[in-house]
Batch of 4 targets.
Target 1
Amino acid sequence: MTTDFVAITTVYSLKQEDNRLARRRKRKSRRRQEGRRILEHIPQYSIESGEDKPVTAARKFIQAEGIVPPALLLVKRNEHTTDRYFWAEKGLFGAQYVEENHFLFPSLRTLESPTAQETVATVAVAVASN
């Protein structure tokens, strides 16, 4: 009887480990996905930070090249890490913040509006043909 108990508890503990090891899918925010789609249409610049901190390297690169907003800067910190920044009229922002709050940036609204108008036009044509 004790061996059955040991076998049952062992199976149960293995199942618990499997549950802990299994990763749950991360929920993707629609707002952030929409922001990411908008940022895909913006000019991107890839640079390496070198001795400077990533933000400093991005600011120096913007100054030296005379980059006009909006722009996306990919700053390689080391071989594993790349920081993303968005250069706007208001200044330099983290790209993740901009993805989540893209509606706060006027330069992104102009990029966003033509696609919304095309969607409305497509719907209007589909309704008119029916």
Target 2
Amino acid sequence: MTLQVDRSLWHEIFAIARRYDDDRAGLGDDFVEAVDRSLQTIALSPQTWPLWPGIKQATPPIQRFVMARFPYAIGYQVVGEAVVVVAVAHAKRRPGYWR
């Protein structure tokens, strides 16, 4: 499957990484690498992860991949042969705040 990640979402990912770097040098790079690995994992088997709980579902539905090391989840939709990433959201916030 092909991955589609909007440029504005990448800007948000790098903004989060800069905040992590403010806490500890190099942690932002770790975050970006973890996002990249997560996206590759999703692309290999997008039907593996469940629907995002606590949000009103769209068509196609939004699925959620929870990152292991960082408190973030990746929301995505499977559209034909593409995985469209719609959010990289902090897991401790209200579900769907990013919509």
Target 3
Amino acid sequence: MPTKTTYSQAARVQGILRTLGTRHGITIGELSEESGVTKRTLYRDLKALQEGGYPLLFEVVEGTTYWKLEPSFKGVPPVTFTLNELMSLYFSRKLFTSPGRSPFRADLGRQVPCKPSHVGGAEGHN
């Protein structure tokens, strides 16, 4: 049985991504031993990663399931957020799923002026 470790889910999921990115395949049992959480927790974490858009693959070899990260995705550098940034993203996501309840509802219907092409460009700044 895996030992209990007090990692946050975000830290645990980042660890799972690192492990999947460095291996050609790992079983849930091996991942459970390494991360110190139950297989059930790992299945939830893997599901969350898939729902978050991470390209996870699994392959059954001689009756054993191996999980891995899509090879083309392994070279993509990780995007790291602070805890405050993650919380802000999490709690603000619902603001934009239903504009009817959003404080920005009135602004969403207006046309936002485009940034002129010369602003911020290198041209004309000699």
Target 4
Amino acid sequence: MKSKEPDVIDLGNRFRRLGMRFTPQREAVWKLFRDSRKGYSISEAIEVLKDQGIGMATVYRTVIALQKIGRLHRVHDQSGEHRYVACKAVHGHPLVCEKCGLVLEFPSCDLSVLERLLAVETGFAITGHHLEVLGICPVCQA
């Protein structure tokens, strides 16, 4: 019997905490995103996974759950379409190449000073943030 990968075991536990089963279909959705450096749009993921018998509703629900537990980021590609990329850190941020769509994750971001300043200036109780950094990767610069 093939042993499960650590990220798959972790996701199974996280899905159960949400009251959801981590089915083989959901595992396939996760692995599609996990194994891609540029991510997929929902429509692309549906197209790739349909041959495995995975339906549109499963893809949508799994993407939503993976976002909720912090394992998928939504990024904007060059055409403005939403793409989803896997993140390894529970709190990481995407660095997106504006030319080729390559997405790298950077886990460090200390925005605590900015969050405190915004709380003081606006009266908001800051509960978190989303950050996407755009640029041009070294290959596209060449």
